[in-house]
Design a protein that fits this description.
N-utilizing Substance Protein B Homolog, Chain A, transcription regulation, NusB_RsmB_TIM44, globular, mainly alpha, transcription antitermination
Length: 162
């Protein structure tokens, strides 16, 4: 597991804790500190990424949740499992607000974390939501990467496994 992948897993755990504790922003530093100490041994170079991603995701939470809700019309955000919701929030944050992360990386990482931590269909669920968002971003000219459709990402993964 790469250090950045582990760092994203810690971000997911922090957002899960924050959401589980009913969103106390004042608790964020303690949550990040606890999760980093528990699971981030040797991730010194990624501590800044973890803290910035958690804090920025929470800062943009209303907009992020509106985006998620746009693609889950028949599934209200409060009915999405805490794990899947945390993963989607990271993915949407990285796609829409963190332009340093390539879209394909943000989506692939979210799918892999969903497969590792979520339920049996979490990977496909996350792929569907982030893929729809990505495709809309391409249509709106928000993404300059040379990817026509996000479904190519999952097809590439399947080909790599063969």
């Amino acid at each position: 597991m790469s250090n950045r992948h582990l760092a994203r897993s810690i971000v997911m755990q922090c957002l899960y804790q924050w959401d589980f504790r009913e969103k106390p922003s004042s608790a964020l530093p303690a949550i990040v500190d606890q999760m980093t100490k528990e699971f981030g041994i040797g991730l010194d170079e990624n501590k800044k990424y973890i803290l910035e991603t958690v804090v920025s995701t929470v800062d943009h939470i209303d907009e992020i949740d509106k985006i998620i809700s746009k693609y889950t019309i028949n599934w209200p955000i409060n009915q999405i499992t805490l794990i899947d919701r945390a993963i989607l929030r990271i993915g949407v944050y990285e796609l829409k607000f963190n332009k340093e992360i390539p879209a394909k990386v943000a989506i692939n990482e979210a799918i892999e974390i969903a497969k590792s931590y979520g339920g049996p269909s979490s990977g496909k669920f996350v792929n569907g939501i982030l893929g729809a968002l990505f495709n809309e971003m391409v249509e709106n000219g928000e993404v300059k990467e040379n990817l026509l459709k996000i479904h190519d990402v999952e097809e590439d993964e399947e080909t790599d496994k063969e």
